[in-house]
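stage 2 :: seqdesign
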């Protein structure tokens, strides 16, 4: 399937935002040196919600590219999902375990792999394969904020895989599509309502309001709705799409620039508003810049977007390795260095490990699933 240039461009922006906020929080750079840097980095956590919307859009594009009407279609979807996710998750866990066992103590290890007072107990290790780490982190937030950046970022992967466990079933059960649309709208409304409930109960921390599954499902549902809308409007002439592009980017920019996630109410409104802006943008304009294939010159411009999953999971390792060289660097130089190192790691991981492992898993498991 050809890749959409605009979507991978947005994924490139998203991973950049995530890298910026984590570099910003590492203490390696002077965060008071640049007002423009602070404006970029302070709300970088929004990048994860851009990922959620784009993920819902792309997974729906994958599902509806074929006649998805049998239980075996769902099984094939899950096999492909396992093949895509698990090799890198296993590699990530192996890297983390090796760091815990061998790395010297110090600020780099504490920030990236092992926070003070963190507990690597049975519940923690079980939360990774069961994709419940976001809830474990929330429920332990009154004790400690997490385990280290390398582990803490797995909260978003947990939410995605929870959603994709039941989304194929929704596609099978709710036909015709308008029924599926109603269910997705219900998930969207539930996400906002659940956060309001948490707020009213006094559970107003960043972790409670932004990393719970319901809020993540809302953004993923928006991405799915965006694809379903895209199938209806993609025949529009380009001039008719520009208003949606302007409005969508305007909503997302408004959320990013004005709704700081340090405020509890912003943790409710901000992710929903930004997700709505991104969803509106891709619904009308996902193919506005056309498609591309690997090997084309412009593919280099969106390489971080194409490798965004590996960039996301491996950037803590890049930060750990570059901990000392980044100290005292100009913020933009440090950001460029970290970004380049992350993309190099991601490309090596994809070429040498992820893609061969994915192909082997798909070949072995899909052969066992009957066509009907």
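stage 2 :: out
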């Amino acid at each position: 399937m050809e890749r959409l240039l605009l979507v991978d461009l947005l994924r490139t922006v998203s991973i950049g935002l995530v890298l910026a906020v984590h570099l910003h929080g590492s203490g390696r750079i002077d965060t008071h040196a640049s007002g423009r840097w602070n404006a970029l980095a302070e709300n970088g956590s929004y990048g994860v919600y851009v990922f959620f919307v784009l993920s819902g859009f792309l997974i729906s594009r994958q599902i509806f590219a074929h006649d998805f009407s049998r239980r075996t279609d769902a099984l094939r979807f899950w096999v492909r999902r396992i093949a895509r996710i698990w090799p890198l998750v296993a590699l990530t866990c192996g890297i983390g375990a090796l760091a815990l066992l061998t790395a010297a103590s110090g600020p780099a290890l504490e920030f990236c792999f092992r926070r003070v007072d963190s507990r690597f107990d049975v519940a923690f290790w079980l939360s990774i394969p069961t994709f419940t780490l976001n809830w474990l982190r929330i429920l332990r937030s009154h004790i400690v904020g997490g385990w280290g950046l390398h582990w803490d970022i797995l909260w978003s992967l947990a939410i995605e895989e929870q959603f994709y466990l039941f989304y194929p079933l929704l596609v099978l059960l709710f036909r015709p599509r308008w029924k599926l649309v109603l269910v997705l709208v219900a998930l969207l409304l539930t996400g906002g309502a659940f956060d309001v409930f948490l707020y009213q109960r006094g559970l107003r921390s960043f972790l409670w309001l932004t990393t719970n599954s319901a809020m993540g499902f809302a953004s993923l549902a928006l991405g799915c709705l965006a694809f379903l809308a895209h199938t209806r409007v993609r025949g529009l002439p380009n001039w008719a799409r520009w208003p949606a592009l302007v409005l969508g980017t305007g909503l997302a920019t408004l959320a990013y620039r004005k709704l700081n996630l340090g405020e509890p109410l912003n943790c409710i409104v901000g992710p929903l508003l930004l997700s709505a802006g991104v969803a509106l943008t891709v619904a009308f304009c996902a193919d506005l810049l056309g498609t591309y294939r690997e090997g084309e010159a412009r593919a280099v411009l969106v390489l971080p977007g194409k490798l965004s999953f590996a960039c996301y999971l491996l950037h803590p390792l890049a930060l750990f390795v570059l901990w000392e060289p980044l100290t005292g660097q100009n913020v933009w130089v440090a950001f460029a260095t970290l970004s380049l190192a992350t993309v190099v790691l991601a490309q090596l991981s994809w070429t040498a490990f992820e893609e061969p492992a994915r192909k082997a898993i798909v070949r072995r498991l899909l052969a066992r699933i009957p066509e009907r």
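stage 3 :: structure notes
- The longest strand covers residues 3-4.
- The beta strands are 3-4, 291-292.
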